UniProtKB/TrEMBL annotation:
Protein name according to UniProt: PF04342 family protein
Keyword terms: Membrane, Transmembrane, Transmembrane helix
Any single Pfam family the record assigns to this protein: DMT_6
Species this protein is from: Leptospira noguchii str. 2001034031
Signal peptide boundaries: none
Length: 102
């Protein structure tokens, strides 16, 4: 999803906006094809709540984004970005606290 939403900032400059949007949706569709069954399995078979699934998805997404922004877009991680990421990690811990202590 990161490449679908942010890849055009580095690539595809010569493409028209409608074509870029179409490409982004095509890339995002692939992730949706993976995420929908994963959420269903996590919810129905593994016992995760919808809140836990969403928070888990967000931490995975932000982790991939940090790598993408650093390696592909060549952006520097600033101290406030690092602190924000640590706070998100803490939120994940809180979200899964009841699952690990029940």
């Amino acid at each position: 999803m990161t490449f679908a939403w942010y890849g055009h900032l580095k690539f595809f400059h010569a493409w028209s906006l409608p074509l870029t949007i179409f490409l982004s949706w095509g890339i995002a569709l692939f992730e949706y094809i993976l995420m929908v069954p994963a959420n269903r399995i996590g919810y129905n078979e593994e016992g995760y709540s919808a809140f836990q699934l969403k928070i888990l998805q967000e931490i995975i997404t932000i982790s991939v984004f940090i790598l993408f922004a650093s390696l592909v877009l060549k952006e520097k991680i600033k101290w406030n970005h690092a602190v924000s990421f640590l706070l998100i990690l803490a939120a994940v811990g809180f979200a899964f606290y009841d699952k690990t202590h029940s």
